[in-house]
Amino acid sequence: MKITAMIIFITTYILLLIFPKIRAYIALLSASIFVFIGIIPAGKCLTFVDWNVILMITGTMGIVSLFIESKMPALLADLLIEKTPNVKWAIIALSLFAGFISAFIDNVATVLMIAPVALNIAKKLKVSPVPSIIAIAVSSNLQGAATLVGDTTSILLGGYGNLDFLDFFFFKNKPGMFWIVQAGAISSIFVLMYIFKDYTKPVKSISRTIVKDYFPTVLLIGMIILLIFVSFIPDKPSITNGMICVVLFYIGLVNSFYKSKDLGIVLKALREIDYYTVLLLAGLFVVVGGITEAGVIEDISKIFVTISKDNIFAIYSLLVWASVFFSAFIDNIPYVATMLPVTTGIAKILNIDPYILYFGLLSGATLGGNLTPIGASANITALGILRKNGYEVSNREFMKIGVPFTLTAVTVGYILIWFIWR
C-alpha cells in the first residue's frame, strides 16, 4: 500500500509540473484515487481538508476584490508618489508600498493594484516600466510571508502550525516571521538602490485617484482587528478565522448591492475569488492525508534526517535552500502543503520544536519564487501586464533584479531564523 501511495503521489507531482493549467483537476483526481483504492476511507476523506484555511482564503480574496474595486490602493499609491523626488525613489517607494499591501492582501492582487500606477508614471516620464514592475512583483512575494493573511503559504502554515495573527509578530516570546521578513525587506532596499542608481529623472505630480466607497477599507481593517482579537480567545472553534473572513465578505456583498442595486457588482466580486486555487488546495489536503496515512511522510522525514546525519543545522539549511531552489520552478502552494507534514515528521524524529523548520520552510518557499519569472504567480501576472503593454521581458532581464533581491532577503532571513529559533 505504501509503494502504491508513493507512486500515485510522484505521478501527481509530475502531472502538476507538466500541466499547470489543470492542476486543480489533477489534485482532485489524485485525491479520488486515494479514496477509491481504500488508502483513505470514504467517510474520512473530508476530514483531511483544512476548512479554516479554505474559508480564510475564500473570504480574504473576496474582501480584497471589493477593496481593489474601491480604488483605495491606487489613491494610497498616488499619495506616496507625491512625496518622492525622482524615478529611483518612486520605484523603491512603490516596491515598499506593494510589499506593505501584500502583507495583508494576496500577492497577485497587489501586483494588479500597483502595476498600473507604475505604468502611468513610466508613460509620463517616457521611461521603461519593466524594472519598476519587476521590483513591485518581487517585493510583493517577499512580504507575503509576513502575516497570517499575506499569502496562501502563510495561511497554510497558520492552519497546520495552529498559529494566529499575532503569532506572526511575536511567538513564544520571540520575534515572529513579520520581523524576519522586514529585516529581509530592509536589506533588499539596498539592492534596489544599487540597481536603480542611475534612475535620477525627477517625478512630476500625478492626478489623485478618487475614492467614493470607503466601506471595503473598513472591512479589510476590521478583518485584521478581528483576527487579532480572536487570537486571545482560548479553545475557540477551529474554523473561527475562516468564518470571520467569509462573514465580512458577505457583509461587503450586501453593502455593495444595497448601494448600487446592481447584482452585477456582487457577481463580479464573487468571480474574483480564485476557486481554482481553493479546489487545488482541497485536493492537495486529501492527497497529503493519503500519503500520511500510508506512512510515506514518515519515510520522507527519515530520508531528510539520514542525509543530514541528525544535524539540526544541516537539516534546517537543507530545508531552506531546497525550498528556494524548488520554488524557483514550481508553485509553492503544493510544495508547502506537502512539506509541512514532512517538517513535523523530522521534528518528531529529532525530538525538537518544529517551528524553526516551519519558518525556514515558509521563508525559502515564499521568497524562492523570485529567482525566476515562472517561480511565483505574482511574477507571471506582472510579466503578463507588461506583455499587454508591448514589453517582452527576457529571463535574464527578470533575473537581473530577482536573483540579487532573493538571495539577499533569503540569506538575512536564514541567519535570523536560526539565531532566534535554534
Automatic annotation (TrEMBL):
Mention any one GO cellular component term assigned to this protein in its UniProt record.
Answer: plasma membrane
Residue ranges crossing the lipid bilayer per the database entry: 6-39, 51-68, 88-121, 177-196, 217-233, 239-258, 273-292, 312-330, 401-421
Molecular functions (GO terms):
arsenite transmembrane transporter activity
Q: Which superkingdom?
A: Bacteria
Where would you find this protein in the cell?
Answer: Cell membrane
Any Pfam family from its record, for instance, is: CitMHS
Q: Does the keyword Transport apply?
A: yes
Q: Does the keyword Cell membrane belong to this entry? A: yes
Q: Main site of residence?
A: membrane
Q: Which residues form the Citrate transporter-like domain?
A: 14-356
Membrane topology per the entry is: Multi-pass membrane protein
Q: Which keywords, in A-to-Z order, does the entry hold?
A: Cell membrane, Membrane, Transmembrane, Transmembrane helix, Transport
Tell me the protein family, please: Belongs to the CitM (TC 2.A.11) transporter family.
Q: What's the protein called, per UniProt?
A: TRAP transporter large permease subunit
